[in-house]
């Protein structure tokens, strides 16, 4: 069944990926109409999240953010498909890196963890590897359909990126370190962990939630550099990335310093343009569940 689904869907995705710009985003607008007005995909989740983190905003403001979010979400999905046919030169025009020298300087000294949130276009973040010499990795969640999983790995490999699972990350960092190889590891770090496995709770958008601190643990134990990737949507189909150093030496940081810095930078990004964050994610579902000391 998985193979049949892949065989049926793949040609359609390829055709969509090569559509001219105007038609391509016209299809995205059609998907927005279906997703928002007809299906109402997770509309209650999005609305509840927005009201929770923006309690002072008027109903009309919440609605405005919600509509623009769904438009962006559909663009983001389409742009993920566009990756199939997007060349290195083309992606450089659509995804501009403002200060790549942050990485080109640090990569000479040690391995780097690039952390970001589900904001703007995280799919094209892997194109940063076109600008650096170090081995590039992206940490991802495997897809249940092995054919689509293989397809995604091959698509991202076009931009010099090797996909690894969360479980493989530490092993890969250690292996490279033992072989005197500096790697660059991209990780989306704003997911909601299971309460039973949570070691740290912290305020995020004014609400205390469980947070992952695996990036910080790795950085401190293995003395890695950590950089926050801030991506802004300039206009439809075009983005600009800014690399913000958090630390050049993980072992020199205090406990929770890296995690707290990531949360504050993500909050700042969301408040600037809230419609570009992934509001369909139940990020605050564990609020109020913090164990009592």
Question: How does this model look, in words?
Answer:
The protein is an alpha/beta fold. The chain has helices at residues 2-17, 21-39, 43-53, 59-82, 88-94, 101-106, 146-157, 166-178, 214-222, 257-272, and strands at residues 95-97, 112-116, 135-139, 161-164, 183-188, 201-204, 207-210, 225-235, 238-247. The chain is built from 10 helices and 9 strands.
Q: Point out poorly predicted stretches.
A: none
Give a quick account of the main beta sheet: strands, pairing sense, barrel closure.
7 strands, mixed
- Tertiary shape: globular
Instruction: Report strand order across the widest sheet.
Output: 1-9-8-2-5-3-4
Query: How would you spell out the order of helices and strands?
Result: HHHHHEHEEHEHEEEHEEH
Which value, in Å, is the CA radius of gyration?
19 Å
Report the β-strand fraction as a percent range.
15-25%
Number of helices: 10
Distance between the ends: 49 Å
The tally of strands reads 9
Mean pLDDT: 92
Question: Layout of SSEs?
Answer:
Elements lengths: L1 H16 L3 H19 L3 H11 L5 H24 L5 H7 E3 L3 H6 L5 E5 L18 E5 L6 H12 L3 E4 L1 H13 L4 E6 L12 E4 L2 E4 L3 H9 L2 E11 L2 E10 L9 H16 L21
Parallel strand pairs: 1-9, 2-5, 2-8, 3-4, 3-5
Antiparallel strand pairs: 6-7, 8-9
Helix pairs in contact: 1-4, 2-4, 3-4
